[in-house]
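quick one, 402 residues, struct below
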Amino acid sequence: MATFFLVIIYLSFISLGIPDSLLGVAWPVMQPDIGASFESAGLLSMVIAGGTIVSSLVSGSIIERLGTGRVTLISCMMTAGALLGFSFAPSLVWLILLAIPLGLGGGAVDAGLNHYVASHYKAHHMSWLHCFWGVGATTGPIIMSFYIASQGWRSGYTAVAIIQFGLVILLFVTLPLWKKVATLHQTSDPQQGNSNDSIVEGANQEADPARSRVKPLHIKGVKVTLIAFLFYCGVEMTVGLWGASFLVGTKELSVETAATWVSMYYGGITVGRLVTGFITLKVSNRTLIRLGQMTALSGAVLLLLPLDSIFALIGLILIGLGLAPIYPCLLHETPIRFGKEHSSRIMGYQMAVAYTGTTVLPPLFGVLASEWTIALFPVVVFIFIAVMFIGSEKVNRTIQHH
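---
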């Protein structure tokens, strides 16, 4: 039953990834069709991101009241309805209004499923969970491009909405399983660790009655962890958004070649998470986080050095492979580091800060690059990774001394 239910969670994360990549693919044909300005896509993206930040912040308290299963079901209904609305939207105003439930639903599903997997499954499942998000994000453009070529972008959104409504039906039918599986895991393996030290540490933290009375943000290490999440998502999106521009502007590559190299960066993240899932069976989260950050730093150094352009490709792939284990392992460490009694709220805070990093830091670099030069890209990427690395290591020291 637990394995079957895990498949449902994976499907949920695939469906979470599909809408994330639709707008960018569809916008060139959507924009003239609805009579919107080209830059309006940025406004829509910000509204969606704002919704995800808000729902992530409040997801902890809502999950405590309704349970992860109901929150996931309601959120998927919101995203499915919003996507169906996109297919009928006559103007930009309607798209903006529909972007609100799309963002709110996506953020709640993200925080809820991450909390559930971190609390009830081992670390390799968290890595594979985020690998399946990559599968969804890759599938979205394929679906949309197929329908744009044959029936139009509105049919593409309708098709994705139908997929989402199919998931809603599946979630509704399996709603009773959420509590049953959680109870099963607590009975068979109450401490979800992936190494002996993690299990002991988690047990000690569970037994700490004083911390249960402390507000989540006042727990030692939480605020520094949020900084690590901010800069992780900031660097992941900055590389994805501006990497091609750097390769074209500084390395003088063609647009097509630069796009291919950036896709290999994303491939490094997706494949890296698939492989990480197996490695977590033998290696602890903390070790993987540290190795990932060091690998990403080495990739940034290759971008910094005045070497042949092929080293830039190697650098991008190293950054992607290095980033792969960091996010899922940090998420899985949440209940181990800070206790299960606070993990749902802290998970929501982490999601909110992560989305903030995704939304704010890449545009800030865009402003910097337009005022100065795109050649600053490797420097900024190195600084983002270094700050994340320092913050993560500080949390490790804080937890050890606590």
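Residues 340-371 form the longest helix (32 residues).
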